[in-house]
Model the fold of this input.
Amino acid sequence: MRSLTNIHDEYDFLDGDDRYRLLIELGRELEPMPDALKTDATLVRGCSASVWVYPVPQEGGGLHFLADSNAAITKGIVALVLAAVQDKPAAEVAAMDVAAALAPFDLTRQLSSNRTQGVPNMIALVQDTARRFAAG
Done:
């Protein structure tokens, strides 16, 4: 997965339509999530599209997330969220300001409110999960 900084460097250089294409490309680059993990328990509430996020604890305390969506641009937004937190220690993810990390993308200006309304819920799910793992 690309770093959030590398993604932003490319995103910042592009115009509106190309930014959409980049988000779609990022979504396609996500590691496949097995259908068996797409359950009600892994569903992110409050998204206009279906979004699933599943944590995989790593040796040493890091968290790796699998995710998917049934909408291409939403899947790209999920990829952005994951780029901010992927494989970092659970305690670090729990404490970080993910919204601030995503702020340079200015998604609310670039995308419709339908596409961005679930972003806070995605972030909350990832951070709540990280808090549970960090607490042991």
